[in-house]
Amino acid sequence: MVEERRDERAGARRPSAEWSWWRLYRNSPLYPLTFAAVLLLTWQFVIARYGFPGVPVRYLGSPLGAGEAFVRLLLHGYSGNPLWVQIMASVLRVVTGFLIGASVALPLGLLMGYYPAVGNLIAPVLNFLRPIPALAFIPVATIWFGTGETAKIVVIAMTGFLYIVLGSWLGVRSVPQDYLRAARNYNLSPVRLLRLVVMPSALPHIMTSLRTGMALCWAVVVAAELIAAQQGLGFLIEDASTFFKINTVYVGIAIIGLIGILIEFIFAAVERRLLHWVGR
């Protein structure tokens, strides 16, 4: 009798086969892709076939149609240029604009944080400009710089600049006053104080502002390439939409999203390298 009860308790503790499979599935790489797969299947076999309220079926496209459009772009390119040329045109614009914006924003943000009088003087103007969307600057950039590359890069640089400078400023302001008092007791010079105390403490905020600024620069590339661009993913999306090539539009949007994810991975890796002490 005692042995039977032990067997029953052991069987109650033993996980069922269904539960074991569910745990394996939850821990597998397939689990995060489940919802996306359901959406794609619903789109392909329900929405693309029966339509969506208020939208004609021919304008809905489908995942298979987008896949075919992607293969065509790989083989034949778009508007006389290979697909990789369209991608690199956008990437180069964003990287150039981001580097220009960051190279101005970082020193200015550090200066504003290190000298409160400078920060209090400049911050109201930056706080006024920050909520203004990049689309509002496009007409101004076009009037000032024409329809060439300069106008596009200026719009991208301004987008990143506004967030990076404020993030850097707040990062320096967040340095604990005890750290600064202790450093001054050792008679550190302003340069050494900035390098040894302020920068390590403010670096997490600075990296967050750089990460956000880069993401916003990449997000605004489509708007920037509305300025008479002949290459780039924004041009591809806009031109394809003009001719109702909806599946090509989806491909351009998907590439922008995938590159955005890649950018996040790169910044996350850099943060783990530079900020290895955070959270320990």
Fold and architecture overview:
By secondary structure, this protein is mainly α. The chain folds into two domains: 2-60, no CATH class; 75-274, Orthogonal Bundle (MetI-like fold), CATH 1.10.3720. Helix content is 76%, strand content 0%. The longest helix has 32 residues, at 83-114. It starts with a helix and ends in a 6-residue tail after the last helix.
In short:
This protein has 13 helices and no strands. With about 280 residues, it is mostly helical.
* Low-pLDDT residue intervals, each spanning 5 or more residues: none
Mean pLDDT: 83
Based on secondary structure, the structural category is mainly alpha
What is the CATH topology assignment of the largest domain?
MetI-like fold
Please identify, by name, the CATH architecture of the largest domain.
Orthogonal Bundle
Total number of strands = 0
Which radius of gyration do the C-alpha atoms yield? 26 Å
How would a textbook summarize the main sheet? none
Q: Could you name the CATH homologous superfamily of the largest domain?
A: MetI-like
| Tally of individual helices | 13
Return the CATH class of the largest domain. Mainly Alpha
* Shape estimate: globular
Q: How much strand content do the residues show?
A: under 5%
How far is the N terminus from the C terminus? Answer: 53 Å
Total domains, how many? Answer: 2
SSE ordering: HHHHHHHHHHHHH
Query: Into which percent range does the helicity of residues fall?
Result: over 70%
